[in-house]
């Protein structure tokens, strides 16, 4: 959940919770499909459970906030695959089928859909879990009902027609959770500051200025690691990183001589963040430049330094992407159609339209 606990104090649950929850839901999904005469061997069942247990193991500290920051140009899915390959060697090929399913290379497509699709075990767990821990009731999806409605047609995952209302609720819950939790404006500014802190620390290290950090964290500050040089050594060091490395470093950086690093660190640790405005329309370049100018003058900052305190970006929310592999509904007559066709709910077509918003951050004093 990154820094979401700054908004919702209960959001301290970990990705380990989520991985176990996904595995639990996968166990139920396998039972339901077997009950409906879908053949799943013991080897396939074990592989599915391994794949879902490890699907997020490549996430670094503070989850999505730090993706492409500590390590550049490589996704958490790619790092997850590196971990799975390393474990596969350790367990003498015991994860080979799990890796095949995770990559989407297995001939039975619904296996991968259970792990990564628009109505998979991953989303079924995190929406309900995050709703519970944040207290945002709108995200409380009926995972049990959705799993009970699962079936397979021509090796493709489908939802039986009587489960269409649960699908509608699921998609609506996802839309609301993104605006109320994942893309909450305080979360956006806090996570943006976290990325800026790391960027500044790396910038100082490259100039030969010392910044305190744990040994694993220091390795990634000292070296530019990307998809081309992320090897076994880097994987081993990456596995030792967690949220505590970053929090401990920021506590130390609060007293650093560099005004940018120290102030950014103080903002996060003291919960005294930048002001953020989230709007439907982008701020004009004239207004943005004026804010930057005022900030430069007030705090005696250079052009490079002011960009750490005044910045803008965009966020988008699309609960259902009909252009991707959609959610298929099995009608009573045996036909399979997309969820938008099966639903009599006008909102479902609306939910498939992306909504874009703009935000600008700047010091509260301005």
Give a quick set of tags describing it.
366 residues, four-stranded mixed β-sheet, 17 helices
Total strand segments = 7
Q: Could you say which overall geometry the principal axes of the C-alpha atoms support? A: globular
SSE pattern: HHHHHHHEEHHHHHHEHHEEEHHE
* Main pleated sheet: 4 strands, mixed
Order of strands across the widest beta sheet? 1-2-5-6
Residue-averaged pLDDT, rounded? 95
How much helicity do the residues have?
40-55%
Identify low-pLDDT runs.
none
Number of helices: 17
> Which value, in Å, is the CA radius of gyration?
23 Å
What is the end-to-end distance? 30 Å
- Global structural class: alpha+beta
Quick recap of the structure?
With 366 residues, this protein is of the alpha+beta class.
Tell me the layout of helices and strands.
Elements: H1 15-35, H2 42-53, H3 76-90, H4 96-103, H5 109-115, H6 121-134, H7 143-148, E1 150-153, E2 156-160, H8 164-182, H9 185-206, H10 215-222, H11 232-238, H12 243-253, H13 259-269, E3 275-279, H14 285-299, H15 303-306, E4 311-317, E5 328-330, E6 336-338, H16 339-342, H17 346-351, E7 355-362
Parallel strand pairs: 2-5
Antiparallel strand pairs: 1-2, 3-7, 4-7, 5-6
Explain this structure to me?
Helices cover 52% and strands 10% of the residues. The chain is α+β, with helices and mostly antiparallel strands and 366 residues long. A hairpin with a 2-residue loop joins strand 1 and strand 2 (156-160). Helix 1 (15-35) crosses helix 6. The longest helix is centred in the middle third of the chain and has 22 residues, at 185-206. The mean pLDDT is 95.
């Amino acid at each position: 959940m990154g820094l979401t606990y700054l908004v919702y104090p209960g959001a301290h649950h970990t990705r380990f919770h989520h991985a176990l929850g996904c595995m639990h839901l996968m166990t139920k999904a396998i039972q339901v499909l077997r009950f409906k005469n879908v053949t799943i061997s013991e080897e396939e069942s074990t592989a599915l459970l391994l794949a879902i247990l490890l699907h997020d193991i490549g996430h670094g500290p503070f989850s999505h906030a730090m993706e492409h920051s500590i390590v550049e140009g490589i996704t958490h899915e790619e790092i997850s695959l590196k971990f799975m390959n390393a474990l596969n060697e350790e367990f003498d090929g015991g994860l080979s089928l799990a890796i095949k399913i995770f990559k989407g290379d297995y001939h039975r497509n619904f296996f991968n859909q259970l792990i990564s699709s628009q109505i998979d075990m991953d989303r079924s767990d995190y929406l309900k879990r995050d709703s519970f821990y944040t207290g945002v009731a709108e995200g409380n999806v009926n995972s049990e009902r959705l799993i009970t409605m699962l079936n397979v047609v021509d090796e493709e995952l489908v939802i039986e027609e009587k489960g269409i209302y649960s699908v509608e609720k699921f998609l609506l819950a996802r839309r609301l959770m993104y605006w109320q939790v994942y893309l909450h404006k305080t979360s956006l500014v806090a996570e943006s500051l976290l990325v800026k802190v790391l960027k500044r620390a790396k910038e100082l290290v490259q100039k030969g200025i010392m910044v305190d950090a744990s040994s694993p964290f220091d390795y990634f500050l000292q070296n530019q690691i990307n998809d081309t040089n992320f090897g076994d050594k880097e994987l081993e060091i990456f596995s030792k990183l967690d949220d505590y490395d970053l929090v401990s470093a920021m506590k130390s950086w609060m007293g650093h001589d560099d005004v940018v690093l120290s102030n950014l660190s103080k903002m996060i640790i003291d919960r005294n963040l930048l002001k953020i405005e989230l709007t439907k329309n982008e701020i004009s370049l004239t207004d943005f430049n004026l804010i930057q100018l005022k900030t430069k003058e007030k705090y005696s900052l250079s052009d490079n330094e002011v960009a750490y305190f005044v910045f803008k970006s965009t966020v988008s929310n699309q609960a259902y992407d009909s252009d991707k592999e959609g959610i298929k509904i099995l009608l009573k007559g045996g036909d399979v159609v997309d969820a938008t066709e099966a639903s009599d709910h006008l909102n479902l077509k609306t939910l498939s339209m992306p909504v874009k918003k703009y935000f600008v951050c700047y010091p509260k004093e301005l």
